[in-house]
Amino acid sequence: MLVGVKLNLEQQFGIPQKMDIIESILDIPVQDPKEEEFSSADLNWIKFGNPEHHDDVALIPYARVDAFIIGECSNVECPTRFHIERGRKRSKGSLKEFKNDEYLEYRLYWCSFGPENYGEGGGILPSRRYRLNTRNRAARPQSMRGCTCHFVVKRLYARPSLALLVYNDRRHVNKSGFVCHGPLDRDAIGPGAKKIPYICSEIQQQTMSMIYLGIPEENVLEKHIEGIQRYCGSNAKVNSLASQYVHKLGMIIKRSTHELDLDDQASIRMWVERNKKSIFFYRDSSEADPFILGIQTEWQLQQMIRFGHRSIMAVDSTFGIKRLKYPLCTLLVFDSRQHALPVAWIITRSFAKPDVSKWMKALLVRAHGIDIGWKVNGVLVDDAAAEIDSIRDVFCCPVLFSLWRVRRSWLRNIIKRSSNVEVQREMFKRLGKIVYSIWSGVDSQVALEEFTQDFVDQTSFIEYFKASWMPKIEMWIDMMKTLPLASQEASGAIEAYHVKLKVKLYDDSHLGALQRVDWLVHKLTTELHSSYWLDRYADESDSFQNVKEEYIASTSWHRALQIPDTSVTLDDNNHLFAKVLSQKDSNLTHLVWNPGSEFAFCDCEWAMQGNLCKHVIKVNMICKNHQASQSSMSFQSFREILMNLWRRPVDDSVALDQAVAWTHQMLDQIQKLVELNSANDIGSVVNNLPLKWVSKKGRTFVGKPSSALSLPSSSKSKPLDSAARKKNRKRKRLSRLR
Asked: How far lies 435's CA from each of 33, 444, 486, 601, 634, in Å?
């Protein structure tokens, strides 16, 4: 999809980067290649002029100019034709005094894919009021893409048998520096464009996604032909063109690079200029303002409109804060399977309220440009330092809090910094109890001090905990108390996205590019975007069964649903642990300590990496059916908020009425959601809906206007009404004439 290709002049044309400047044309040697047709790659180019202004030139026999032009047109990577953009001629003997480089004939040759740009974002040159009727132009004006490649042929006045070639720009690129035609251009239009079978955006995106994910070209071609045959039928010509298209697309992707310029900042500017449709906010870095780049493709915008409306969005914030040049913030929605789907990426180091509000408002304006009634019901954050006020001001919705980042950080560091398994699970259990006790009136600071004293021998973890968490623990605890907590399903979905993002970005082969923003942008908009697009396409079209199965099982919650209840055994005594039988190996059993708690400790490989595993979720599902088991943290948080709402009013005040109204409103919405989720037939839900007013003229019943409610008009009033209408129409006509 979003591809940028930068040509290396030294490799393509053999031009040395540094050479001496020649000031006299008499010192330039004449070159006459042996080939019948030759190009700029077959010549040695010399710097001619002075240190302030010089050009790349070559001296050839004038009789071989046509052979040079034909060779330039036969460039394999950028085949083209050259037209005469401008020309001048002198008669011999017209100059009494002349220099050695004066011309007898002067012709400026320009690539026929320029200089005008009739493509997206292009236009006719501002200095040209009409299109010149010059020779050898492109077959169709709409094929012109603003190519800057051009050279000058000067037939020397002093030596008419020689021609001086002056190459001003040898790259077939537009003003933004991107290849604009030929096999390396993803938007190339050739003379056979009308014969190419119809390729809709869905087929093109499917093909690109498969190539980005490393699927063999044979399999990509097979799926590509299947898609095209839905529109064109099956014949040898279609299959041949499809094969060429897939091969060309694969070559473009393989040769693409994230480095559009050696300077990272300049490279990002070029990418932004190229991909304006995929950007909802951009601000370059300066002394006063920090760098902010908001990325959202058209497909991501569609998914945000579809799954975010009247639903919940989540934020995976501060990814790569230690390893990347700029941290990455991701906005997520929950799709039809409640998987976290990235719908926007924000790359910035600034989390100040004014900056956060700016890109959030830009995102909301973009959504309202598609659907003016689009609204999100809640935003789920995972960082206690998040700008909650900005979210509430812009999206006008409540904010929820997810503990997945806290749980993951504590568990990973306990396993990393403590070697004793029994100590690991006891430490994790104690931290979980401290979190659970925030609603029971226990002083968290005292509990944490006791924790550090009891495990003082675990020096490595205690030092980490005191340095990283103790200074800001009050902020995190206050966030847990004041905001509703997210469920395990939502937390597991966000964690699954975070793990996938980490695998994609922190590959060993790319560690050297972590400090470049253009690499991060390229990685997000190609591989990661293609992966999620193909997941959704496979699920909705019921194709790519392997991809679909992996997508469904990508979260721990859905993997836990595949474990039967009979595979879970609880400890009979005090429910200290639970045993979960492995579904792959019947001889293997996993132990889950502290069952029923979100801070349960499992000995499986996935959990030992700090992740929320399917065994913990399944055991907690089983424990909910036992009366002795404690409620989930999200339910306890919700209950505490309702209780605080109930305790707040005094006597029979207006505040009591407001609290009751809010409580009944939430209760009504919850009941409707439960009814909708438990109903097998959507028709039964619709039939139970109450009557709704659609206009002032009448009411509707189940969406149909009721004619019985309207009163018949008197027959005597009809002539008067028709006369009044005619009079009004006459007045309107007269007002228009005035």
From this structure: 81, 8, 14, 15, 12
pLDDT 10s digits, 436-476: 888 887 888 888 999 999 999 999 999 999 999 998 888 99
Res. 265: pLDDT tops 80: yes
Q: Cβ-count burial of 666 within 10 angstroms (0-12 exposed, 13-18 middle, 19+ buried)?
A: middle
pLDDT at 407: 92
Burial class for 50, CB neighbours closer than 10 Å (0-12, 13-18, 19+): exposed
Q: Determine the Cα–Cα distance for residues 185 and 474; give it in Å rounded to an integer.
A: 55
* DSSP code per residue over 500-568: HHHHHHS-GGGGGGTT-HHHHHHHIIIIIHHHHHHHHHHHHHT--HHHHHHHHTTSHHHHHHTS-GGGE
d(CA 502, CA 486) in angstroms, rounded, equals 22
Of 245-249, 294-298, 663-667, give the range with the top mean pLDDT.
294-298
Alpha helices in 322-458 (DSSP H): 353-370, 388-395, 404-417, 421-436, 444-454
Closest CA to 323 of 495, 510, 150, 198: 510
b vs e for 488-523, b when ≥16 Cβ sit within 10 Å of the residue's Cβ?
bbbbbbbbbbbbbbeeebeeeeeeebeebbbbbbbb
Record the tokens describing residue 410, joined without a space: 């504590």
DSSP 90-104: --TT--SS--TT-EE
Instruction: Tell me the pTM.
Output: 0.67
Q: Burial level of 185, CB count in 10 A (0-12/13-18/19+)?
A: buried
Beta bridge partners of 348: 292
CB 387 within 8 A of CB 351: yes
DSSP 580: E
> pLDDT confidence of 187, banded at 50, 70, 90?
low
Whole-number Å distance between alpha carbons of 206 and 218: 14
Contact in structure between 434 and 444 (CB atoms under 8 Å) = yes
Q: Which amino acid is at 59?
A: L
Distance (Å, whole) CA 104 – CA 156: 6
